[in-house]
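In keeping with the milestone schedule agreed at the kick-off meeting, the structural modelling team has produced records for the first pair of proteins. Each record is given below as a sequence line and a structure-token line. The laboratory manager (R.T.) confirmed that both were archived under the project's standard naming scheme.
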Amino acid sequence: MAMFLFTDAIINNKPIKVFNNGNLSRDFTYIDDIVDGVVNTLVKDSKNDSLYKLYNIGNGKPVQLLDFIESLEKD
């Protein structure tokens, strides 16, 4: 969601709301990768009888928020 909000602000020449002075990093994972991860975990463990399992299906490569915004502004 952040990418769309930031891009909209850039295109419309509006300020981007940045909290904590931009001291934030997070995984910006492509939606198809998340879908593949969910499907693969369901297929892989379809015969598992445990009540629940915990999976981390993010990409594991956090990006600094200000670097992310800078990248959007360049394109």
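The second protein of the pair:
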Amino acid sequence: MNSVDQPITGLAARLGEALQAQGAQVTTAESCTGGGIAEAITRIAGSSAWFEAGFVTYSNAQKTRQLDVPEALFASVGAVSREVVEAMVRGAQAQSGACYATAVSGVAGPGGGSAEKPVGTVWIAWGDGSRLFSRRFQFPGDRDAVRRQTVEAALQGLLRLLVEENPAAG
């Protein structure tokens, strides 16, 4: 494991311990990370006890098809938005049966940004079945750096959610 992966692997291990202690499962719904959160989680031996499913829904059509994100949201607020990641969390929970979920959508770059949503703009949402939180991030760096920071923030937020803190506050 390289030094870049160590903090993420440590977060995933802590998440697994916390989920196992609660007897709970987690699911992920990912766009800009392309399955990176699920990959980090499944690096941990025994993750099948607490990782239910990962959805990689890169296109808007798949966000609608797999996660039931309303098509109208894409025209009204865009894929990189609070509304879409919150719908992705709810859809992933409904499809997987997992209590805990995180969802991400963003502009990892190097292209695709706009004045309103420049490269590095990422929305992350977290839910536990009754509570739903989301936050907009502006991550610096190249595509790999944006994706890595997104995975790390999603895992940190899940850990906060499990101890009943607001994951969007940190």
